């Protein structure tokens, strides 16, 4: 095991958006939830974390860099994940490099970890979910751990609850489990990303000045003070989980949308039922809800579902490309870009939806007519600048290894960030 070699692995892991929300823990340290939850994995082409993990006998401590900046690994959640995954490490042999690491060596070897989000960490887009999932997945590969994705999800869960759902693509359920040690609180895949590939997702990153309550402390306060949460966890969510699984299986968009919107609204109601109340949505979020509700109602059948996590950003799931392009026209009508923002940086991700919407440049945005469902309600207000940008994406795949060495975030000779 002596020598100056560095062995490393790079992985890419998606983020996910819950359509039946996780909110509330029954065990804070193990991160065990009070109810099951269901999520859609988002296409990593637009939202993902890339992580390189390296091991070398020359490293003298575990170190981590996030988006190029060194961060501390001292926190309990990092330590739990590292401890759990180290205990599952196996023999590793790399004949090409002449490296042999025995199972027992792993406890004395140190790690370097570099992680990078392809989206702004501060935008409030579940960066910890993709981050912990990627860390655990990459380390499992580096250490030749034999655990399957579900077993790995139970480790990622100990980094951040929602992270366990990022170990799979498509549609994922986090089963709350019953065991006290948390071994049965893990994620399973309900359907892969090809199962329902009509869906198109548009995320409105909403401008906000306010620092939000973190999910961790917010849900702690809810568990301590909200009676509505008890009713939700015991009576409401179990039924919704069954209905949501059915809706996903049958690609029943009407049920999917109704359940998704209701569950988001109930999650925010539970936040409001917390003492002191927690406000995650703002006026822009509420305007987006109203616009979607009005349009869905006027169409008779739902075209779009919306859901909001612990912040003001809206995640909208459109039934198909046609609905997504009509949604984008509506969103751009209500929330046009600022004068100094060009369209190319205002709509990011899969820009082809913009073509479908018949919008080539900013002049087309200015010429958009009011949506037919609001034409009678003159005047229709515009809220320029209230959305920072939109991300167009779709359901996506689970974690992958990146074999292309040029994508590694650590230098193969030194094990330090490139
Ligand atoms: C509103 O997974 O961020 O996004 O387990 O304390 O790290 P911790 O919380 P986190 O909470 C996510 C809450 C949510 C809903 C969801 O993703 O299900």
TrEMBL record:
Keywords: ATP-binding, Lipid biosynthesis, Lipid metabolism, Lyase, Nucleotide-binding, Peroxisome, Steroid biosynthesis, Steroid metabolism, Sterol biosynthesis, Sterol metabolism. GO terms for molecular function: ATP binding; diphosphomevalonate decarboxylase activity. Residues 14-187 form the Diphosphomevalonate decarboxylase-like N-terminal domain. It is an enzyme of class 4 (lyase). It is found in: Peroxisome. It comes from the Eukaryota. It catalyses: (R)-5-diphosphomevalonate + ATP = isopentenyl diphosphate + ADP + phosphate + CO2. Its EC number is 4.1.1.33. InterPro entries: GHMP_kinase_C_sf, Mev_decarb, Mev_diP_decarb, MVD-like_N, Mvd1_C, Ribosomal_Su5_D2-typ_SF, Ribsml_uS5_D2-typ_fold_subgr. Performs the first committed step in the biosynthesis of isoprene-containing compounds such as sterols and terpenoids. Belongs to the diphosphomevalonate decarboxylase family. This is Diphosphomevalonate decarboxylase. It comes from Lithocarpus litseifolius. The lineage of its organism: Eukaryota, Viridiplantae, Streptophyta, Embryophyta, Tracheophyta.
